[in-house]
Specification:
- With 217 residues, this protein is of the alpha+beta class.
- It is built from five helices and eight strands, in the order H-H-H-H-H-E-E-E-E-E-E-E-E.
- The strands form two sheets. The chain has a five-stranded antiparallel sheet with strand order 4-3-2-1-5, with no helix packed on it.
- InterPro entries: Chromo-like_dom_sf, Chromo/chromo_shadow_dom.
Length: 217
């Protein structure tokens, strides 16, 4: 009997390591597979299973473990564990999954200036008939399906979320182009020193600024 207890403890340890490891195929393979994986007899395996409290090992616990295992296991094709994927890895993963034989055809380049479609619900105000009056710059682009873009405003503040190509319209605005003024908020100075503090059409109050009165047309 003294020699039997150490053996039972060893059986318990071996089978627990397999049976409760959701990454181990034999953990869901029945008595035969569990016996083979543990190098123990089916009789020993069956006896051990009969002593387990099956109600204590809930399906939700198994699912959590499976998801955790999947999210933290390196994918053989992408070379990344899903939980470890960063935004900057998306392009590399896309090419690994779909290949690079067909070059991705982006409609916009990084640095392009665009307007946003009025159908997009944003926190910005001011719209032309179909497009926002405020102009944004393409900051990043992603080979997602469909292709998406990240934008920034003229203060280099990144807009929340990503935008699809149909939601954007490329614009060409020269450095000396005129911007429309919504209203003059206050005035200071006289003559050539006269200035107006203005709110720009289509821009929020962060962009209010002083301009020379003579610059206004």
């Amino acid at each position: 009997m003294e020699n039997e207890k150490p053996h039972l403890r060893q059986v318990d340890r071996i089978l627990k390591d397999i049976y409760y490891d959701v990454k181990y195929p034999a953990s869901f393979g029945g008595i035969a597979n569990l016996s083979k994986a543990s190098n123990l007899s089916q009789q020993e395996t069956r006896r051990w299973l009969e002593g387990q409290d099956t109600d204590s090992y809930k399906y939700s616990d198994v699912l959590d473990n499976v998801l955790n295992s999947y999210n933290n296991t390196v994918h053989s094709i992408t070379g990344f564990a899903p939980a470890k994927v960063r935004e900057q890895d998306e392009s590399l993963i896309f090419h690994k999954l779909y290949g690079s034989k067909n070059k991705i055809k982006y409609k916009f380049n990084i640095g392009d200036q665009v307007r946003i479609s009025k159908t997009v619900k944003t926190f910005r105000r001011g719209y032309l008939p179909n497009w926002s009056e405020e102009i944004f710059t393409i900051r990043k682009r992603f080979p997602s399906n469909p292709l998406t873009y990240i934008l920034e405003d003229i203060e280099h503040e990144i807009l929340r979320g990503r935008f699809y190509e149909p939601e954007l319209q490329k614009v060409t605005k020269k450095a000396n182009a005129f911007w429309r003024i919504e209203k003059i908020l206050k005035t200071r100075g006289k003559g050539k020193e006269k200035e107006h503090f203005v709110k720009w059409k289509g821009f929020d109050n962060r962009f209010n600024s002083w301009i020379k009165a003579e610059w206004m047309k």
